Amino acid sequence: MSSGSDRVPGSSPANSPADGAAEEIARSARRGVLYISLAKVWFLLAGLFLPLVLPRVFATATFGMWTLVSGWFSPLNNVIVTATIQAVSKFAASGSIEAAKTAALRMNVLVAGGVAGCFFLVAPAIAHFEHDPELIPLLRVSSLIVLLYGFYAVFVGAANGAREFHKQSGLDILFATLRVGFVLFAAITWHATMPALVGWVLAAALILIVSVLWVGLPRRAERTSSTVSVGQMLGFVRWLFVYHAALNALMFLDGWWLKRLCTEAMAVTAQAFGSSAAVKQAVDALVGVYGSAQTVARLPYQLMLVGTFVAFPLLSLPAVQNDPSRARAYVISTLRFSLMASLGMVVALGARPEATMSLLYKAEYVTGSPALAILLCAYACFALSTIIGTITNALGHTRDTALLGIATVVGSSLAVYASIQGALVAGVQPLRGAAMGLLFGMGGGLLLNLIYLWIKLRVTLPLLSLARVAVALGAGLAVGRCWPAVGHGGLLGSKFGTLLASGTCLLVYLAVLIATRELSPREILSQRRARPQSMDSGDGAAAAT
Questions:
Q1: What pLDDT does residue 530 have?
Q2: d(CA 441, CA 407)
């Protein structure tokens, strides 16, 4: 061990408490990125596995009911969970872990309890909007999931704020596994929506009990040392609630309108279907097919976020204040790489949409392939809008970001409504109409976000990058158009040929990006080397949320 006389004059002691604390935070941040990345990947894979398997277990109409019900309560879940975790993590990270738990539990008695109670009460109104009274008991059972998720999120947020990332990731992995296991067991056993929802409720109740036992209830002796009020916590999350509510509504509003408008249109010609029950079954089957296309279309968005969420903490407000030019460079890089990644998935999955649907689902779901190609583009726009929103939230512009989200929801809702109605009047497939409306809405939202980003930071997607990526996209899609159709004799028209085609289209896309010098190995390596110090010395909680 070196003595004090060996130190350089003016330097800090090598083993000073400050150095030890900084190193511990750095190790904690690195562990957090690893643990939470693994948990997110597992959570997303489990979430993808369920809607890919359920269509093989349920009848098409039953899967449509499942899609519709989850499309109504999932936005509430996602909003409450995300906002609660961020709020608890923020206050717990400052050392007020027990006080943060106490305040969050009290907050969610009001928020999660209030939202779940209101959802229970408005179930008849939702069923009336969708022209389907069978939704009422299903929606009321799902209100329990909303309630349980709210309290579970408190303990996940506390683990994150305490930098106990192994607990947070363990809970997420266990919950994803329980949910898939219970729902599939119920679906396979009873082939009905209600038992599957009850399985979800049981999984949520069990993980809440596990989280209480593992993370712990607030300890009275410690929570009195510092105070966190419910008002403080609500003040922090109010705009986050609005923003995440807008984001989640965007992901489901096309399904809401599709069910309502198709039911109205088919009811006019009910004689062709024989009865109202036949109308309902036909509409539910349409919603189920559309839901299967939504599942595939959301995959690029979900996978891309797993690969890029680590970059967001770098764009905190202090970093911008200290080096705004460097922050702008990171924003541009994030947008460029996100654009290339999301459109790469569009090429791989959308170059031959009919083949993709045939590979993943039963034959009756292939009718959703025209919608899939459009939805992939819509969710690429949505992914970029979400990244911009995360950046502007990190810079402290939470109110403006929320208002942009509301504007996008309103515009998308109007576009989806008009597009579905136009398709029904013209006698064309309403699934394609719903997807086209969503593309117009999400594309408009992306444009609004890019304009706002330019106003605030004077950065946007470079026009030359947009042109190069567009050329690469066109080349990849052109290969898919030239590929033999599904069922064509020989290897290229088989299911293995579908995988081969996706890989070939993606390789062509990447080759054009490299040939136009939009993408280069040197740039990727330089991005890794240019990692700022804030990644190693920043707050671990921030890095993992």
A1: 46
A2: 10
Burial of 385 (0-12, 13-18, 19+ CB in 10 A): buried
Q: Residue 311 above 70 pLDDT? A: no
Q: Please name the residue that has the structure tokens 């930071």.
A: 457
DSSP state of 490: S
pLDDT of 1 reads: 41
pLDDT at residue number 32: 56
Token match 């110090």: residue? 533
Helix (H, G, I), strand (E, B) or coil at 131: coil
How much of the chain exceeds pLDDT 90, in percent? 59
- CA 277, CA 516: separation in Å to the nearest integer? 56
> For residue 125, what pLDDT is reported?
98
Q: Do 131 and 263 meet the contact criterion of CB atoms below 8 Å apart? A: yes
Q: What is the DSSP string of 3-19?
A: -GGGSPTTPPPTT-HHH
Cβ pair 456, 395 in contact under 8 A = yes
**Angstrom distance (rounded) from CA 259 to CA 254:** 9
Query: Do 199 and 223 contact (CB within 8 A), yes or no?
Result: no
Q: What is the DSSP string of 456-507?
A: HHS----HHHHHHHHHHHHHHHHHHHHSPPTT-SSGGGSHHHHHHHHHHHHH
Cα atoms in the 13 Å half-sphere on the side-chain side of 170: 10
- Token readout for 537 is 């010395």
Question: What one-character-per-residue DSSP string does 245-290 give?
Answer: HHHHHHHHHHHHHHHHHHHHHHHHTGGGTSSHHHHHHHHHHHHHHH
Cβ neighbours around 311 below 10 Å, total: 20
Q: Is the pLDDT of residue 200 over 80?
A: yes
Q: Where are the beta strands (DSSP E) in 331-426?
A: none
Mean pLDDT on 459-488: 92
